[in-house]
Write a structure and sequence with these properties.
The protein is α/β, with parallel strands linked by helices. It is built from 20 helices and seven strands. The protein is about 45% helix and about 5% strand. The chain has a five-stranded parallel sheet, sandwiched between helices. The chain has a two-stranded antiparallel sheet with strand order 6-7.
Amino acid sequence: MLAWVGLGSADLLGLGAWASEPPSLDHLLEGIAEPERARDVIRTETAPETAPETAPETAPATPSSGVNPEDMIPAVDAAAAAILQQAAEQASAAMMLAQSATSAAEWDAVMVRWLEAIALAQSVPPESPSRIVAQRQLRSYVQRLMEVQQRTEQASPNSGIPSLGSPLFDAQLAGYLSYLATVGTPDVLIVGSSRALQGINPQVMQQALAASGYPELKIFNFSVNGATAQIVNFILSDLLPQPLPAVIVWGDGSRAFNAGRRDRTWEGLLTSPGYQDISTGLSPENLFVASIASAQPSTFPEVTVRSPLSEIPGNIDAFGFSAVEDRFTPQTYYQQFPKVTGRYDGAYRPFNLNGEQAIALGNIAAFSRQQQSQLIFVNLPLSSDYLDEFRRYHEAQFQQFLQAQSRTHGFAVIDLLTQWQSQPGLFADPSHINQDGAAVIATQLAQNPIILAALNRPTLNRPTLNRPDSLSSDSLSPASLNPDEQTVTETGEEITDATAE
């Protein structure tokens, strides 16, 4: 019997003890590397000292096929064994470096070692008998790399901007300012609450637009959990550097406009040190640039292997998107979470669309026009499990509200509210889209005439593309915005008071 001592164990690869020296792979694979010697030892240790005189001599038993069992053991892949030994040495070196790492540069060095270990383990070819061991070893390396990456990010200089009240808000601002410094102002900016944060994938939208003849567009998702119209107004009017992106896609629903509920996200922002600084006229962009320019290694955060990991969601990508893998399955979901009907949902009771959130919407529309940015509101889908009779009634009121506001303020509306009534697998929970749904939404938006017409406007500072005449900027003028047409869902269904009843 072979014992795989140490290979892939917690001592060498896991999250537990740190190894000082990697065990020799020759030692780990000794039973395989020298099968004949190992079997000779077993025979020597287990054979009786003398055979009974009366025991007749018999030929060794062999399978009926005539194949010796000893010949059935796979041949050792010496090349793969050497590669995995090198990978183990890199992993051990990474763990040793991590023991004393505190700065961003030191954690970068740890990451380099893990990347080298990963590259080595991945280089074992699929046809090698060692491939299974290599892939399991690789899985452990990748897990460690992700942890080290978080520590590297924590140890890097921050944005220099005081907190806006939540780690995610701070992370989105720092990510956006870094994005601006890297590639410039995006062509399309996605804003909204968590429904847009995980519901519209900017990379997929960018790729789909490129396939439709709109190459090299830049798209960023600056959405924040709990963002209401007041929060979006602050982000666009006071927080982000100007000029704004040419197209602003605001993805959300009625909750962002209900003045009848307490706006805790807004309250948290108002009391944050970041808001206080910005309200006095300080520019987040200037603070960010000054902080990076004046940063000295001695002022960087110190992060050790025992430091708690950051609270920033680890799945926020470089484009501000949060991919959520969960799939909403009603049969099992409600075994874990209680089913709350609309009548007892704080997002709908009380329900008031004519308060401060409506005022914020008007301000957003006016500021967007001033910035020559096209504002497009996307009413994101809700599951059929969520849209009970009570909620449908209030969602119908919200659709009428969108019609009136779009007519008054001249912004466009794409209504997708009820398009997925029989597709729970595209949701993460009853009211939030998962990563599969986010890809579908992004593709739909990339093919939507309203989005394409907005990208075709002369104010978009990009080379003129060969685009259909039907997608001219005239289709987005206030006079052309027919709310009765704009609020129809992709499936052709429109929620009215009658259907809600």
